[in-house]
Amino acid sequence: METLEPIIAAHPFFKDLDPKYRALITGCASNVRFEAGESVFREGEEANHFYIIRQGQVGLEINAAQRGIITIETIGEGDVLGWSWLVPPYRWHYDAQALTLVRAIALDGKCLRQKCAEDRGFGYELFSRFFPVLIDRLQHVRLQLLDVYGAHK
Prior knowledge:
Elements: H1 5-10, H2 19-26, E1 29-34, E2 39-41, E3 49-55, E4 58-64, E5 68-75, E6 80-81, E7 95-98, E8 102-108, H3 109-118, H4 120-150
Helix pairs in contact: 3-4
C-alpha cells in the first residue's frame, strides 16, 4: 500500500518538519477529490479537516448580505486550505467551493488535535505553521472588503 508520507514530506508547508512529526501527520491523512461546483465546506459547519491542494482550484467565499456571494480568494495547487479546525468551537468561517476538479490530501483535524494534546512540541510546530496561513486569509478578506465597500462611498 502506497503511503502519503513522500507527498507530505515534499510539500513546502511541512518543510524541515521532524520526521517523527511527519509520521504523525501521515497517520491522519487521506486522499480526497471534489468535483467542480462541489462544496468543500460551508460556513458554520463543523471544521474537522484541513487540505493540501494537489490539483485544481477552490474559491473561498463569504455571503455579504446585500451583495451576495463574494469570492475572497482563489487557492490552488500547493496551497493549504482550512485553519478553523485549530480554533474552538471548530466551525468553518467561510464557504469553500471547488471551481474545478480538485484533488487534495485531507488531514483529519480531530486526529491532529489529539496528537497535539499528547505532544506539545508537535502542537507548537503545527500551530506555528498555520499562523501565516491565518494571517494571509485575513489579509485577503480585508483587501476584498476594501475593494467592495471602499469603492461605494
